[in-house]
Each structure stands twice: as C-alpha cells, then as structure tokens.
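Support reply, case 0932

Customer input (verbatim):
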Amino acid sequence: MEFSELIKTATVESVLLAGTGLPAVRGTLCITSHHLLLSSCPGGDGQPGTVELWLLIRNVDAVEKRVQNLGWYQPPRTNGSPRDTRLAGSSGTITLRCKDLKVLQLEIPGMEECLNIASSIEALSSVDSVMMMYPFFYRPQDLRLEEGWHLFPLEQYFQKIAAQTNQWRLSDLNRDFTTCPTYPAGVIVPAAVSDDTLRRAARFRQGGRFPVLSYYHPRNGTVMLRSSQPLTGPNRKRCPEDEVLLGTVLDEGERGFIIDTRSAQAAKQARMTGGGTEPKSSYPQWKRLHRPLERGRPLQESFIKLVEACNDASLSMDRWLSRLESCRWLSHVKAALSTACLAAQCLDREEASVLVHGAEGTDTTLLVTALAQVILDPGCRTMVGFQGLLEREWIEAGHPFHLRCARSAYSHARLKQEAPLFLLFLDCVWQLSRQFPFSLEFGESLLLALFDNAYASDYGTFLCNNEKERCLCKVKENTHSLWAWLNQPEEKKKYLNPLYSHNPLVIWPSVEPQSIQLWQGLFFRWIRPSQYLEEARAEMQRLVEAKEAPAKESAGSRLSRSLSDPAARTENER
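Our regenerated output:
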C-alpha cells in the first residue's frame, strides 16, 4: 500500500483553523502520509505571522464533516458552447476530534476539497499496520535508534532481589515465546521450581500466563505475583505443577491471598466456559478475595460519557453533578485504588504474599500490581523508577496497547477491544500525587505525556500488544524509544516535580469518595485556558531553583576553598 493512494487532495489554500482557546488562523493546509499541517504567512490584514498546526494523523479519533452549498448559476455561453450549471460557491467544515481529547475545526473553501480532505484523514488515521505507523519513519537528529531501549533490563531488577534472597531465579524458558506468547523472554520464578514444571503450569493458565514475580517487598520478604485465571472448567480440573508452583512461594504455616479482579459471580460463570478459580482444597494456604474491577466495554463507555459531559458547556450545576455520577469514572478510580491498597496492605501489614489475577491477566491485573508498587516502593515514585515500572509491569508484561488504545473517547466506530485501562492507572497515580504532593519526583505533565503517547506517538515504546509482536516487527531496531526523549536533560526538566522530597515510607491514600477528584488537568486540558496554571508552575520552579542555587554555590565554595587551602582541607577531613 502506498500512502499517496489514500490522499485525494494534498493541499488546500485559505483554510481557517479554529479550536477552543486558540486564535483562529487562516493558511495553507497540507496532508502528508502521517501529518496534517497548516501554515499561515504574515498578511496585511492584521493576522499574526507564521503559525503551524503539526498534527499526527494517528491522533485523530473521529472526523465529522458539514458541507454548505451557496447556490447554483449558469455561466454565459461562448462560441456556441453548451450551457452548463455550476456551483456559485460552497464550503465545508471538518471537525477533528483527537485521541488526546483536543477538538479542532477546519473551514475549507470548496465542497469537493472538503470531502476529499475528510476522506483522506479518515483513511490515513485508520491504517492499522504497525510497520506503517510514524515511529518507523521518525528520525530526530539528537537521538540514536538504540538509545533508551535497554535502560530497564529485567536482569537489573532481578539483581536487586538476588542481593536480598536466593529463593528466586531469572528464567529464560520463554525466550522463543512458545510457553506464553504475551510474556517477555525472561521471567522471575521460584528457584526451587524447574522450567519443565513451569511449562506444565502454563498449560493450566489462560494464555499460558503462569504465576510470575511482580514485586519483592524488601522489608519482610513477601512477594506479589501475577498470572491469568486457572483453567479449572466445569469439571474442576487440577494441575499438580500449578499447585506446586504456588505452594513453593509460601513456607509451611504461612498464608497468602489471591486477589481476583472479577466478581465471585463472574468467576463462577468463567468456570462454565473453561476458566475458573483456585479451589481451596487444592490451594489450602491461599485465601481468595474478590475485588471486581471493570474492563472492556463498560470502562470505555464510562470514559466516553465523562468526556461528553466535560465538553457540554450548557450544563447546570445539578445536571453536571448528575452526569459526573452516572458516568461512574470516579467510581472506577476509587475501586482501582482500593484494590491496590488491599494488595499493598497484605504485603506490608499482614506480611502475606499475594497473587493477583483476573481472567486474561493483561488488564486489571497489571493495573493493581503497578499501582500497589507505587504505593509501597519509593523507588517507583522517582522519574526513572516510574519509567522502569511502566516498562516492566505494562509494556513487557503484555498489556495490549495496540488493541486497548486503538480508539479514544470520540470514535464513532463500533467498540471492539478498546478500554482505557492505562488511562485509569495514570488517573490513579495523579490522585496519589495530589494527596502526596512531595512524594513523587515527577509531575502531572509526565502523566499527560504518557497518555498522549499511549494513543498516538512519534516513538515505538507503546507499539504492539506484547514483546513477541515487538520482536516480529523489529520495533527496537527501527523506532526511537520514548524514554530516550523524556530523559534528555532539557526535556526531563519539564516533567519534574519541583516540590519533590524523597519519602521512604509507604504512602497510604485515602479512598473515601470525598478524596477522589476529577483529573481536570486531563479532562479539561483543551476546554479552559491553562495559561495561569503554567505561569504558576513556572514561578514555582523558579523559586525552587533560586533556593537551591545558594546551597550549590556554598558547597562549591567550600570545595574550592578546601582544594586551595591545606588547613581548610585538613579541617574538612576531620
């Protein structure tokens, strides 16, 4: 397929661009294989100088068009030519609703041009082939292709665990992705369990997702595992290898908790179709707790309803509160935080190991295990540690980003497998940052950047559904890593929290309804001007830097004095 086949009209003059909170701009609209560009030249009518729209077409979620005919006329015949009828004038308006929730309007002169532009954008935004997406073509001058892809190797994470205990090992039994197509090549498993036992246990779990280590709690040695549901089925099948695997995790007399992210009724229904739960008779040391979390269509519809309510400026206070409640988004946030707190509490306060799973183990399971680690581990609350957590618990763990983030809140397409699980996770992290403003090294701007890049990106980090697909598409060889861009010194500064102070403690959030707030920085980002918030943020950053400068200068002066003055050096050594 050639991109040129999808572009019916490449350039249109005198297009008017408008958007909420943006000045209207008239200029030339161009469509390329991956971008929509609008540039305006300085004019004599008081318009501003060159302004550009640089929109990644993959970011377009829905295209709405409205065409206006302004009448017909018959031009005079010349030299006996037949009389014809033409449009006296026509124009059209295209509304672009983007995956990052931005809404843009293009007023295009000419009905044919308007329809062609709309058709081209729809076709280009619907290209589903991963290797035709922009990250495979993007080549920034200041980044190398290999940069950022190997910042968080699982071996490095395992070495931290191995320094504290010898009860776990790093297994490469999945190096060819045959044991589990959605797991990475390497997984951390109990040292006493052989690879052959793991393979047999994998056949007893949906999609081959046998229990693997997600987190080791250094304070007391308890662990958090994740997996998919067991395939017990209506006949209550057993798997001795799976029982041995989970039994090995606990010492004699210890207990563990299985947190099932489905309701008891849903788990029971799953058993009738081949799935199920771990029966107490086969797993006597494990106690099952059901904490239902929505996924799939109900969560996507909740997201859609919330965005619709946020965009409706005509709502009265009563109507707004009613729609906010009926969409149930904040209830989903509360439920996710509550379940993550339960997992953290089992590990930290009950000193009991935990296994988390739902059905497939690629959605709500990862939501809970990742959130619990942010609550428990101060390392996951740093900029680099949080990136490592995302790499380990979302990307390598097999969350299907390509399926879940195919459409956002505006799409008119019939829902398939879209679901904003990753957005729900980011919202929960934002709730933590609001309740503990000094404890996270990164700020809201990083969470917004991650949301944007999960749905449409210049980088390959969130492409595909699992590591096997990334290997087949050679993502790491042919695209740039998002982490390489975020960690550039000048770029990184934008995402740091100027109020950050290392907090070694567990952060226990309040999950009372009064404590859960709407993430206005995301859902109202394009609806109301953020100029004053940005100015306040910049001023706060300036004050923090001004406060740090004398301390750095003082330390530098002491060092300089000690190097030049032997007496001072002797005093410092003392």
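We compared this against your earlier run and they match. Two observations from our side: Residues 343 and 486 are 30 Å apart (CA to CA). The longest strand covers residues 22-31. Please reopen the case if you see a mismatch on your end.
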